[in-house]
Amino acid sequence: MSFKNHMNYRESYQNGYQRLKEAGIIEAELDARLLLEAVCYTNRSDLLVHGDRILTEEEANCYEEYLVKRQSRVPLQHILGQASFMGLDFLVNEHVLIPRQDTEILVELVLKYLHDGMEILDVCTGSGCILLSLLKYSNHCKGVGVDISAEALKVASKNAELLQLEPVFLLSDLLEQIQGTFDIMVSNPPYIRTEVIKELQDEVKLYEPHLALDGKEDGLFFYRKIIDQSLLHLRGGGYLFFEIGHDQGKEVSELMKAAGFQNVQVEKDYAKLDRIVFGYKKS
Known about the structure:
CATH class of the largest domain: Alpha Beta
Strand order of the largest sheet: 5-4-3-6-7-9-8
Helix content: 25-40%
Radius of gyration: 21 Å
CATH topology of the largest domain: Rossmann fold
CATH superfamily of the largest domain: Vaccinia Virus protein VP39
Largest sheet: 7 strands, mixed
């Protein structure tokens, strides 16, 4: 079913919802509404209050374009060009992972250990959402974000500019280009086993960067490297925080303990699955 000209706002939404539902989009109702709101610069109440408003030709064509993309499994956030995270808006594109709600748990946990004036290192920074959120919600902290992708760092730098923050972003294979030491290190590294990537949703495996997904054969490759390298760049008493896959809590904990980290703990996400591992370096 294609888009019909001269539909009003309510009809346009219903048409979009039906098409996304038929395409198998899980949150078809929400996505159809958010795409229409983005096109028309409206909000949720407009569907009720101004449902009879006729879309302009430009709005109709843009909504049609958005619907076709979403039917093809292009992520909603890529179509809109942004994602909400920790109450902030972040630019996203095909070069960075889309920020997830589970990662907010990581940021909220780090904030409990983050004191004024601390220095933070974010490894595999991507869009910068973790580091920039930590800087936004703390006082006088300094931050460095590293990523192996120059394109990802462009996105992170733009997000920093929009949030009026001034971290340092470095092109680096993990910690290779890092000098000095930090109070807090945080990372959401690639942790999906290579063989599992083909089983992911189309939105992820077709449109998100495999560089940020692929944790190699056992999914632990980057945890091993970061833990090993962190010992040179984490101050005594400093904390290392990781986001992990739901089945990696025990293994990542053991890797950190074997490297000498103290009080290693696992935190769960909203679904009661293991999501964060953290501990501190002995003074």
